[in-house]
Amino acid sequence: MDTWKKFKNDPLALSGLFIIFFLVFLAVSAPLIANEKPLLLYVNGHLSSPAFSELFTPESPEIFVEKSWNFLLLFLPCSIVLFLTGKLFSSAKRKKYYQYSFVIVFLLLLLPFVLTGSRIDKTPWREMTAKLKSPDFALYAPIPYGPFEMADAPYEKSSFRHLAGTDQSGRDVLARMIYGSRVSLSVGFCATLLSLFLGTLAGLVCGYLGGKTDLFLMRFVEIVICFPTFLLLLILMTILLDYGSRQSILLVIIVLGLTSWTTLARLIRGETLKQRKMAYIQSCECMGVPVYKILFLHLLPNVSGPVFVTFTFEVAGAVLAESSLSFLGFGVQDPTASWGELLRQAYPDPLSYSHLMFYPGLAIFLTVCAFNFAGEGLRKALNGK
């Protein structure tokens, strides 16, 4: 509570947190905000939702990422309902209720995503629904365009029809930016979680065990740090692509995660070196507590401050690195929507294609600033703890 009180007194940190939540909301609810298929379709007394059925069979080449965000779109509301209804039960019943209800709902929602694959729907929904007569109707999303739909002429400027214009293929830029938030946040969160796992594990092991283990791992960390990070990214991406790896979001996540863990490893090692000489660690050793319990149950909670702070800064760095890789052609590829890929389309003539430079650039700028502001606010709030 004291940490939250300090955090909320920082207006920049709060604004950053608000932008982060807004970006997550856009990513989760993207099919409800931008979709070329009707959200609701009422024809001849039959009510259906073509957009809902597409959640389980997305058309995106990055089917894993799309299905993950679509799963969250369904699971989060169900979790909220379960949480609110669980308040109606007594404490004993509530515990049993939570143990089974969340697991059952999770598995039931996960099943259709696992059993179905990608499917291309070529139904001309816009032409069909234009001919509907009362009482039949079709309800579209606020942005009635999908990220892959060639809706108009290429390189159209911002207008009432396309608020952010169109790209080189005539696709709505605003729709692609909304779906691009899924790519940026997926890379940011997943790559950072991978780097946090590697950095935290290496730091704990080096700091606690010391000796030759510490000497070997720290020399390896120093070798990795000697390479320019972005150059190392390009080299690894090129090597993996030469060996036949498909250029995808998962490849970008793996490469970013494997190249950004060294700083955290050194931080955690330093904190662990201070903690391992304290009385509670020596007591654990005298009692014969296993090493893995000392590392993860006793040391980790007491060195976790830098982990939380580093997480926010690392997400910002991963988002920026993914956008840079996509801009250079080494990251996420067309037709997958990506902010860096949209910026790349403006490269031949930035002044003529200013809408392709301004809107994606603004999204990248706000996202990086939001995570940096939130991280700085969290660092101040945790100072001294």
How would you explain this protein's 3D organization?
The model has no long low-confidence stretch (mean pLDDT 85). This protein has a domain at 174-382: MetI-like (MetI-like fold), CATH 1.10.3720.10. A hairpin with a 2-residue loop joins strand 1 (40-43) and strand 2 (46-48). 68% of the residues lie in helices and 3% in strands. A three-stranded antiparallel β-sheet has the order 2-1-3, with no helix packed on it. It has 385 residues and is mainly alpha-helical. The protein has helices at residues 2-8, 11-28, 30-33, 50-54, 63-86, 91-115, 125-130, 173-209, 211-226, 229-242, 249-259, 262-275, 279-286, 291-302, 305-328, 339-345, 354-382; strands at 40-43, 46-48, 137-139. Helix 10 crosses helix 11. The longest helix is centred in the middle third of the chain and has 37 residues, at 173-209. The protein contains 17 helices and three strands.
Q: So what's the CATH class of the domain at 174-382?
A: Mainly Alpha
CATH topology of the domain at 174-382: MetI-like fold
Q: Tally the helices: what do you get?
A: 17
N to C succession of SSEs: HHHEEHHHHEHHHHHHHHHH
Uncertain segments of ≥5 residues (pLDDT<50)?
A: none
Q: Main β-sheet: number of strands, strand sense, barrel status?
A: 3 strands, antiparallel
Distance between the termini: 12 Å
CATH architecture of the domain at 174-382: Orthogonal Bundle
Strand content: under 5%
Determine the mean pLDDT.
85
The secondary structure category is: mainly alpha
> What do we call the CATH homologous superfamily of the domain at 174-382?
MetI-like
Total count of strands: 3
The residue fraction in helices comes out at 55-70%
Spatial order of the strands in the main sheet?
A: 2-1-3
Which outline best applies? globular
- Quaternary structure: single chain
